[in-house]
């Protein structure tokens, strides 16, 4: 016999699966488009997006780590890949030797601007409610 608690738990599990399904479908679609068009993945794009939205041109790695859900080591690996691709540059902070600064290059800004249009389009296609067809 199902109790109200079982029904409540079942509803939560169903809600979780719905959220998870939407996330996975959307992130996979974004990943495919960004990879095919710009040779970057979702994680790389998210770091470019955070850098583009930063209030100054240069961003400290530790500030980027606060804004990102990634671990410090994962963030460092992604910034390494972006640097090798010429999309960001990293430099030592002159006022704090322990800090590293990251900023978008001109190429990084160009790729970001184009990739953001694609990412937002995929978000719209995947997440906006569909209008009923008549």
Automatic annotation (TrEMBL):
Keywords: DNA-binding, Transcription, Transcription regulation. InterPro entries: HTH_MarR-typ (IPR000835), MarR/SlyA-like (IPR039422), Tscrpt_reg_MarR-type_CS (IPR023187), WH-like_DNA-bd_sf (IPR036388), WH_DNA-bd_sf (IPR036390). GO terms for molecular function: DNA binding; DNA-binding transcription factor activity. Residues 1-134 form the HTH marR-type domain. Pfam families: MarR. GO terms for biological process: response to stress. The keyword Transcription regulation applies. It comes from the Bacteria. PANTHER family: MARR FAMILY REGULATORY PROTEIN, TRANSCRIPTIONAL REGULATOR, MARR FAMILY. This is MarR family transcriptional regulator.
């Amino acid at each position: 016999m199902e109790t109200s608690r079982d029904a409540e738990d079942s509803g939560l599990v169903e809600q979780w699966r719905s959220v998870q399904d939407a996330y996975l479908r959307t992130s996979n679609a974004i990943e495919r488009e960004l990879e095919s068009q710009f040779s970057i993945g979702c994680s790389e794009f998210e770091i470019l997006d955070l850098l583009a939205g930063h209030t100054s041109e240069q961003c400290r790695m530790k500030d980027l780590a606060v804004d990102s859900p990634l671990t410090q080591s994962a963030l460092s690996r992604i910034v390494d890949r972006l640097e090798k691709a010429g999309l960001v540059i990293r430099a030592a902070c002159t006022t704090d030797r322990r800090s590293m600064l990251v900023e978008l290059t001109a190429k990084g800004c160009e790729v970001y601007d184009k990739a953001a249009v694609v990412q937002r389009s995929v978000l719209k296609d995947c997440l906006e409610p569909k209008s009923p067809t008549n």
